[in-house]
Design brief:
Layout (H helix, E strand, L loop, with lengths): L4 E12 L3 E4 L2 E3 L2 E14 L2 E4 L3 E7 H6 L10 E5 L1 H5 L3 E3 L1
Antiparallel strand pairs: 1-4, 1-8, 2-3, 4-5, 4-6, 6-7
Amino acid sequence: MAQVMQQNTGTVYLEARQPVEIQPKLLLAAGRYLAVKKRIGAQTLDGMNWTAPEYVIELTVGQLATMGMELAANLISAKFDVSKFVLSRDLVIA
């Protein structure tokens, strides 16, 4: 019997109540950020078994420049997995 897999995605707002260093030398300013929340589910005899959610934010070149990031010439935006910051409550679902 083949296992049924599902992907569940949606958008949420994450709030940084104070600046958060999401990678070395890249400080996310306090504020709200649109994020994509993703989970993977596998069908079991007891129902759907879901993975822990992953949260990804996409920052524009303008946002990155104001944060002091060195930018490649052809960069338009960059995505960052911020799941660990949601787990640690440095970022909260708004």
